[in-house]
């Protein structure tokens, strides 16, 4: 197929600001390549799609495409070749963009090895690799390593006369120097990059990056107007090029900071805050509610009474007063008597202008508070169409999991803050109620993984390394970046959206363990912060142990995030399948058992049990099973081996030392759980004797070399559980006991239903 024609079509869409069409163009072409069996075209198109997903922040999609690329490349026999290195480089970039930095570095190293074997030392591909590695070093906080890599890359591209690569490398250097607060060198590099792009008459996302760096340098030098112009231009170009991705919002944040600073500088130093005596503690949210009740509501009832059931009013969105964080300092801009009035488009078309007039006539001074000048570039109050209000904050609605990675968390926080005073139709309330649930577990776990890894890399690793080198400035940068990661992670642990950085500490204080964490952050006690976060992650069953070096938990968190959106039924199926695969590999003393070839019966027996479990238990067991299996440890083999302590004690004596050690405390917990379950099994036998006779014998005392009892089987199984899995299982059984519920009856009911009976009584009657 004609790949070049597809790429031309894609480039035209981007050039004409139709970036949203790119995915459709590429996926359609990919389907064609598959149908035609054109593996070369397929691989090239998949790499293009990977790059697109990376640029627009769709990390989960990029990881899936990365796996597909590796499969296609290996199928084509490309391992070790230059095309294979190109695929690995693109995958490394995607992992870097998604925050999976360790994996990204491994891919970069593999690319480096291939380049060393097949390319000259100063090839342009080597320069591209150096540029990308530098970006990874930035993410890891290794800024000096990043500068070293970029300077090597700049030397190569300058010698080759590659104008675009020269411009991009200067921009990357500028942003790296900014990270080191070296604004002199940053300004030099930013100007060089902008000049190169202007000479090429090219305005893309890379140019926006150069403008962003130049704007920050101007701001630091005191040129607020120049900074605002550059940042505004960068924001426009970024949106036109790639839409509102994470970098777009970063530019927006800096532009707001610049605009706020400019307002503060031009405000009169001796102008007093407009407030009456005794109003130091007044809150904007209370003013807004009183303004609605005493003024706006009255005007609506007088002038638009037939429309009052179509108008939602509250105060929420952007602003410290919406969070309840406003204080005396907050009152210098965008503060005072104000409301957010939300309408459907249909209602706005009918009464919008009339409402605008009513709102414009509201008092600018109310209850001792004057409305301060607006300096934000966003409309923070007034009359809104619902879709416009949500679109301005989030960018889109409804949203999917991918959107939750590209939309900043502070935008979600702004959507659910404040208060709705009235919402007759309930539209904005439904959106806020849905968002108030927090991130779905699969998204939340990935965000936890990213923040945990970043805290570890910055505060637990790079901060201490910088101190040991005597580089105090870098150490301080790493420390405060790491503290920000810790505060963000704490929000995720409570499944609360982190607000904008300027309110991050204030918001953290309201978390379940926030005051303790903030105290440790103020004391700069990195070790204690790590311990506290690890303990809280463990308490919430996100991780399996309390290792306080948080990056050690990344693999587990990523694994669990990949299955967290599954239902109980789907997870039970997954457990059953992986167990049967392991069961199939068990080597029996007398040869292969017939049950090892009977998946149908095996799946019913095992799934019946797992359908009683909760999601935390199933996810933990799947992670434990996967981890151990990758280490060469078959938990099914161990389970059957441990049962032999009762069924074949002589053989058990020969193999017992090959099993992981189980301490007396863990054994005591296991025996306590067994006692509860054996009693329930005995109760079941009395109530349903026919069904009981078809199941295992109950007691260990009844074991034979050929028949294993329920009690022995349960003991062998629990002895293979990790400490975390046993904790979850014990908690589960105790909760059932406290509610006078039988785990045996629940399991057997699932079993008979899978055999086609609707009740235990019907199954008993037909047994």
Summarize the main sheet: 4 strands, mixed
Bin the helical content. Answer: 55-70%
How many strands appear in the DSSP assignment?
6
Enumerate how many helices there are, as a single number: 37
Poorly predicted spans: 267-280
Distance between the termini: 63 Å
Structural class: mainly alpha
Counted up, domains total 4
Widest sheet: strand ordering:
5-2-1-6
Morphology call: globular
Strand content: under 5%
Give the averaged pLDDT, no decimals: 89
Radius of gyration: 31 Å
Q: Could you describe the 3D structure shown?
A:
It is a single chain. By secondary structure, the chain is mainly alpha-helical. The protein has 4 domains: 1-119, Tetratricopeptide repeat domain (Serine Threonine Protein Phosphatase 5, Tetratricopeptide repeat, Alpha Horseshoe), CATH 1.25.40.10; 284-435, no CATH class; 441-561; 568-765, no CATH class. It is 68% helix and 3% strand. The chain is built from 37 helices and 6 strands. The strands form 2 sheets. A 4-stranded mixed sheet has the order 5-2-1-6. A two-stranded antiparallel sheet has the order 3-4. A hairpin with a 2-residue loop joins strand 3 and strand 4. It is globular, with a radius of gyration of 31 Å. The termini are far apart.
């Amino acid at each position: 197929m004609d790949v070049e024609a597809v790429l031309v079509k894609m480039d035209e869409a981007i050039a004409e600001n139709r970036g949203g069409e790119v995915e459709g163009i590429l996926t359609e072409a990919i389907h064609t390549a598959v149908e035609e069996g054109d593996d070369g075209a397929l691989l090239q198109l998949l790499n293009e799609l990977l790059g697109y997903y990376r640029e627009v922040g769709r990390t989960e999609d990029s990881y899936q495409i990365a796996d597909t690329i590796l499969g296609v490349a290996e199928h084509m026999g490309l391992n070790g070749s230059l095309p294979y290195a190109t695929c690995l480089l693109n995958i490394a970039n995607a992992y870097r963009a998604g925050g999976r930095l360790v994996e990204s570095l491994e891919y970069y190293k593999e690319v480096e090895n291939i380049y060393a074997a097949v390319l000259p030392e100063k090839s342009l591909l080597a320069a591209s690799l150096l540029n990308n590695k530098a970006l990874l070093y930035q993410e890891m906080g290794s800024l000096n390593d990043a500068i070293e890599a970029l300077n090597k890359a700049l030397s190569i591209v300058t010698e080759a006369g590659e104008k675009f690569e020269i411009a991009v490398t200067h921009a990357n250097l500028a942003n790296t120097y900014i990270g080191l607060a070296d604004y002199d060198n940053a300004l030099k590099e930013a100007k060089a990059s902008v000049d190169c792009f202007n000479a090429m008459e090219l305005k893309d996302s890379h140019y926006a990056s150069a403008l962003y760096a130049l704007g920050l340098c101007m701001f630091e030098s005191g040129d607020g107007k120049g900074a605002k112009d550059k940042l505004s231009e960068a924001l426009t170009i970024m949106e036109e090029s790639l839409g509102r991705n994470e970098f777009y919002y970063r530019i927006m944040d800096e532009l707001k900071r610049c605009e706020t600073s400019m307002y503060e500088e031009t405000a009169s130093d001796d102008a007093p805050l407009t407030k009456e005596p005794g109003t130091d503690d007044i809150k904007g949210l209370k003013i807004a509610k009183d303004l609605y009740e005493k003024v706006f509501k009255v005007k609506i009832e007088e002038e638009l009474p037939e429309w009052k059931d179509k108008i939602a009013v509250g105060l929420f969105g952007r602003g410290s007063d919406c969070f309840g964080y406003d204080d005396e300092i907050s009152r210098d801009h965008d503060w005072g008597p104000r409301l957010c009035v939300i309408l459907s488009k249909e209602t706005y078309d009918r009464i919008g202008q009339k409402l605008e007039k009513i709102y414009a006539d509201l008092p600018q001074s109310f209850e001792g508070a004057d409305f301060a000048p607006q300096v934000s570039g966003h409309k923070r109050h007034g009359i809104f169409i619902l879709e416009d209000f949500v679109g301005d904050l989030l960018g889109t609605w409804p949203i999917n999991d991918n959107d939750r990675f590209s939309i900043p968390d502070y935008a979600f926080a702004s959507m659910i803050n404040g208060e709705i005073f009235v919402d007759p139709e309930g539209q904005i309330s439904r959106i806020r109620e849905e968002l108030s649930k927090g991130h779905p577990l699969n998204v939340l776990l990935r965000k936890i993984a990213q923040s945990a890894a970043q805290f570890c890399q910055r505060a637990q690793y790079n901060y201490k390394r910088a101190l040991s080198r005597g580089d105090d400035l870098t150490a301080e940068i790493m420390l405060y970046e790491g503290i920000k990661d810790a505060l963000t992670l704490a929000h995720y642990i409570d499944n609360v959206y982190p607000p904008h950085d300027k309110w991050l500490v204030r918001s953290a204080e309201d978390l379940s363990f926030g005051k303790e964490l903030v105290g440790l952050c103020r004391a700069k006690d990195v070790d204690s912060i790590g311990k506290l976060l690890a303990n809280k992650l463990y308490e919430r069953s996100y991780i399996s142990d309390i290792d306080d070096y948080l990056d050690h938990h990344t693999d587990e968190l990523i694994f669990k995030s990949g299955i967290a959106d599954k239902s109980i039924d789907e997870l039970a199926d997954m457990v059953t399948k992986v167990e049967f695969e392991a069961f199939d590999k068990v080597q029996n003393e007398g040869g292969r058992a017939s049950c090892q070839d009977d998946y149908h019966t095996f799946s019913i027996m095992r799934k019946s049990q797992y359908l009683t479990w909760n999601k935390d238990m199933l996810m933990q067991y799947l992670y434990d099973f996967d981890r151990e299996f990758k280490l060469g440890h078959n938990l099914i083999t161990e389970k059957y081996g441990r049962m032999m302590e009762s069924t074949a004690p002589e053989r058990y004596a020969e193999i017992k030392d090959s099993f992981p050690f189980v301490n007396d405390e863990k054994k005591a917990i296991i025996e306590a759980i067994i006692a509860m379950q054996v009693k329930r099994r005995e109760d079941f036998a009395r109530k349903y004797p026919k069904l009981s006779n078809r199941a295992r014998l109950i007691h260990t005392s009844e074991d034979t070399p050929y028949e294993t009892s329920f009690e022995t089987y349960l003991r062998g199984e629990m002895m293979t559980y990790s400490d975390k899995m046993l904790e979850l299982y014990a908690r589960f059984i105790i909760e059932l006991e406290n509610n006078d519920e039988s785990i045996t009856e629940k399991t057997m009911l699932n079993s008979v239903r899978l055999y086609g009976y609707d009740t235990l009584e019907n199954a008993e009657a037909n047994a």
